[in-house]
Amino acid sequence: MSDLSRTHFRTCSLCEAMCGLEVEVKDGRVERIRGDKLDPFSRGFICPKGAVLDKLHTDPDRLRRPMVKDGDGQWREVDWSEAFETVAKGLGAVIGRGDRNAVGVYLGNPNVHNLDNGLYMRPLLKSLGTRNVFTASTVDQIPRHVSCGLMYGGAGLIPVPDLDRTSHLLMLGANPLVSNGSLCSAPDFPGRLKALRQRGGRLVVVDPRRTRTAERADEHLFIRPGTDAFFLTAMIHTLFEEGLVVDDEVLSVVQGVDAVRSAVAPLTPEAVASVCGVGAQTIRRQARDLAAAPSAAVYGRIGNHATVFGTLTSWAADVLNILTGNLDRPGGVMFPQAAHMPPQGKAGGRGFALGRWRSRVRGWPEAMGELPVATLAEEIEVEGPGQLRALVTVAGNPARSTPNSARLEKALSTLEFMVSVDPYLNETTRYADVILPPPSHLERPHYDLAFTSLAVRNVARFSEALFEAPGPSESEILSRLALIAAGQPYDADT
Description:
Blueprint: E1 6-11, E2 20-26, E3 29-35, H1 48-51, H2 53-58, E4 67-69, E5 75-77, H3 80-95, E6 103-107, H4 115-128, E7 133-135, H5 142-152, E8 160-161, E9 168-172, H6 176-179, H7 189-198, E10 202-206, H8 212-215, E11 219-221, H9 228-241, H10 248-251, H11 257-264, H12 269-276, H13 280-292, E12 297-300, H14 302-305, H15 310-323, E13 333-334, E14 354-358, E15 365-367, H16 376-381, E16 390-394, H17 398-401, H18 405-412, E17 417-421, E18 434-436, H19 474-485
Parallel strand pairs: 6-7, 6-16, 9-10, 9-12, 10-11, 16-17, 17-18
Antiparallel strand pairs: 1-2, 2-3, 4-5, 4-18, 8-13, 14-15
């Protein structure tokens, strides 16, 4: 492929937007990247990150061969056989003592942007057999998964706002003019908000800061940080009090309406106004406007999920969508139908459960098979059965992205063994004994498993690799690690 001059079409894998790209390649090098104007989903939109995707591919700091740390703390490049042999020795020594919970796993955000990792991470986790699994999700969106799991029966059943058809969008804790949205995959989120207002719709932003998104809104409510749950439940109270709930035919498909009415009875706008910093009349007006709109959607993100009442806030947003008749309807919030998933309502399964086990030190409950990453440091520090003595990290930098990262860094330095699947020597991987570098974004095929399940329009695209990788694919790297964790030779047939 290196001696061909041609234009390749692929999906950008750097964020949730899934923008379509035109990548011009000549003599084995990327000449130009621009948005694919014929892509029906992104329509030529591209952000500054996507335009320089090739810079990651050619970055001289990116690791292309495995790295092993010698006894004197010095790094050296090795071949893949030596790297896997070192992993087998170090990881096997910890697993061989008989306590699989002595091995922990940390998974970073890029895993959900990666086809191989989406398919091969589960076999690795099953082979490790540990309950000490940590991911970036617990400092991001886990409350959303939990509330949707309890409401709809599956943590992945997340309704997203129908941005292109709604006439009223109430947005909390999000700044898509900077981040382009999250748990709502939409290329050119800012352009879609502009189109909403151009067609006569209304955008209301609830945020304690004067963000770029808030500056473009029809109304900006300066709520007190962490009090979104009070604001939303007072809106729910108003819907009941003023008879603004939709008719019984719509509500016949849901359960627990009377329980919700009783639960929010004390939470009047007057009672919560001093708590959240938004006036009672303003709260009532927001509820009335939401109920009166021809179509409406309540959308919240990390600003109200990563709080003490994050799960309650997520639940309250969906309750508002339900009580105003805007769940699973055009212009409201809708469930995407990803090509690789069964139709909604046909998924089967065992439902959604929480707290099937708890963290060793402080007893925090698991959610979606993982523990809060804020507990990772103490699980390494505190001695006793189940103490973490080895760690596997994949595509993550928790030494910078987790709470009290200085404490975690110190804890990482005490591990007996650590292996990282990562293309860089960074603040986390410098504590590893082995670094296994994956292919670049342009050296691997791509399909979005996670984000097509969160897209504002049903979309499916597959991208072939543009260049040949210098080493094994991520599927092979993870497969070899799974073999090692299972006590098998790393070079066995996968």
